[in-house]
Amino acid sequence: MKFSRKQRTSLEVSLTPMIDVVFLLLIFFMVTTTFNQQSSIKINLPEASSEEAESEKKIIMLIINAEGLYFIADEGEGETHQLINNKPETLKRALIRAAGQSRTIPFVISADGNTPHQAVVTAIDVAAQLGFSRVTFATKTIPES
Fold it and tell me: Distance of CA 89 to CAs 21, 93, 95, 126, Å?
């Protein structure tokens, strides 16, 4: 008696479903990844060169404490001077005296973390009215634990 054998079909592994799953995982990870948001804050970093420009030597530093009081740092004497009051006119006169005729001098605002928001907004508004083009904020980097 002759038994006929069934022909076996060759086994093939289809890679199409596996490729689809890999692409779905790739899309999932791309969509759910959070990116670092530091690029939304514009910071003017100093550039080093062998020769400094004359305007780069002077910086106007405005310090605002937690109570909203203004202090202007004097580079020449190494001292900070408190302004008489918090009025915009007083701040404007002090900035004109510190900057002279130049409005391209870097103007750095260093505010306490608990400073009233209005004090910082007033400082930015006065700087804009006077035409300062290089206004930056001093920040402190928190170390990751």
Answer: 65, 6, 10, 8
pLDDT in tens, 49-99: 444 444 456 788 888 888 888 988 866 556 777 888 888 899 999 888 888
What lies within 8 Å, CB to CB, of 36 at 6+ separation is none
Q: pTM of the entire structure?
A: 0.55
Quote the CA–CA distance of 73 and 9 in Å, as a whole number.
86
The 3-class secondary structure across the chain, one letter per residue, is: CCCCCCCCCCCCCCCHHHHHHHHHHHHHHHHHCCCCHHHHCCCCCCCCCCCCCHHHHCCEEEEECCCCCEEEEECCCCEEEECCCCCHHHHHHHHHHHHCCCCCCCEEEEECCCCCHHHHHHHHHHHHHHCCCCEEECCCCCCCC
